[in-house]
User: Fold this.
Amino acid sequence: WMPWTDDTKSERAEAKFIKYIQGRMVEGKVFMLTIAMDGVPVGMIDFHNIDHADRHAEVGYWLSSRVQGRGIMTRALKLMIDHGFKSMGLHKILIQVDSGNHKSDAIPKRLGFSKEAVFKEQIYFHGEYRDFVEFGLINHANRDDSKIGK
Assistant:
């Protein structure tokens, strides 16, 4: 249910998408990386909806079906979490997953994310409404509890 997939079917559309993402990265709204194996792009992972004031962001990812099941996305997400918490100063990272995509929701579960919400019929995709599940991970190492309640 990623909105850009239906619109990205040519080199020209891909170039337009890359230019758009580059602009969003300059604005600090997106941080996107390509996942490559042997120099060949096989997926991507990104932070989007980055909120610098409240220090949270959402993660999105996809991986070619031909390389799934090898731990690639789990390793990529671990690196993104580390970058988000340590380099970007994020307090919380969110992931939204199609409720029927069990391969994709296994990744945040494996890395300690907590299931926070189920959004019923939130996405209209290919003629049907889909639920999505939101997972969250909080950076407790970055918290100054001495300021809570003051």
